[in-house]
Amino acid sequence: MPPSATEDVTTSINSEPHSTPLSSSPLPTPVSTMPGSDFDWKISLSNKVIAITGANRGIGLGIAEVCLANSASVVYSLDIFEPGEEFSALQKKHPKKLNYIKCDVTSESSIEEAIETIIAHSGRIDGLVANAGMTKHQPAIDFTRADIEKLFNLNVFAAYFCATTVAKKFISLGIKGSIVFTASMTSHRPNRAAPSAPYGGTKAAVRNMTHTLAMEWAEHGIRVNCVSPGFVKTAMTYFVDQAPDWHLKMQYYGGMPRLADPRELGGAYVYLLSDAASYTTGVDLPVAGIVGAW
Mind telling me the catalytic residues? Predict the structure, then answer.
C-alpha cells in the first residue's frame, strides 16, 4: 500500500473532529433477571395476570384455555368482537378467571384504556400475548393498497402499540413481564397452499421487531418473544384442508398431514409467559407440524 494511502486511513481512524465523546453519566443498572434461591422451576403461570388480544375465538381462545390449564390467575381477552359460545363455555369452566374487555387494538387510546382496566381490576399485569390478526389469501397482483394497509394496521401497528403500552406499564409498576407475539411460519417461507405476500410481510415485521424490542427492554427485565404457528384450524383457515389436492400437497410437503388444534400452540406461549423462561428472550418458536418441513 502506498504511504499516502496508509496516512489517509490512519488520519481517518484517529481524527478527533469525527469522534463522538462518550457520556460521562453512569449507565443505568439493569434489572436483575437471575432466579432467586427460592425459585420455582415448574413451568406454571400461577399468580400471573395475562392479557391476550383476539382471544374470543381461534388461536387466541386456544392460548387462553391452555394458560388457564396451567394455573394462570386470570386471563383477559381484548377483542373487538363479542364473545361466542366457545368463549362462554370456557368461562363457565373457569369461573371468574376468564374475562372479556371490548377493545379495538388498532386504536392506541382503546389499548391504553383496556390495560388500565386490567390493572384496576387485578392490580397488575404480568404477560401480554399480541395475537389479534387477519389474513387474506389471493395472488399478489390482486392486492390493492387498501387491502395491504388493512393487514399492516392490524397485524403490525396494533401489535406494536399493544406491546409498547404494556411495556410502559411493566416499567412503571416494576414488573418483569413477558410479551409474546403471534408471528407465522409465512414469515420464514412462502405458504404454497394459501399464498399471501402481504400477510407474510406483516408477520416477518412482527418477528423482526421481536428481536429489537427484546434487546431494548432487557434492561428492564422485560422479555419479548414470538411464536410462529403453521396451519391451525380456525375460521380463517377452514378451507385449506378442503382443497381437492390437499393430500397430494401433504405428500409433497412432508411433516404432519393435518391442521393443528389451536390448543396445541398453547404450550409454547405458556413457557414463554412463565418465569421458567427467565433467560429466553428475542426468539421465535415455530410450532408447525406441516409448514416446518417445507
Answer: 184, 199, 203
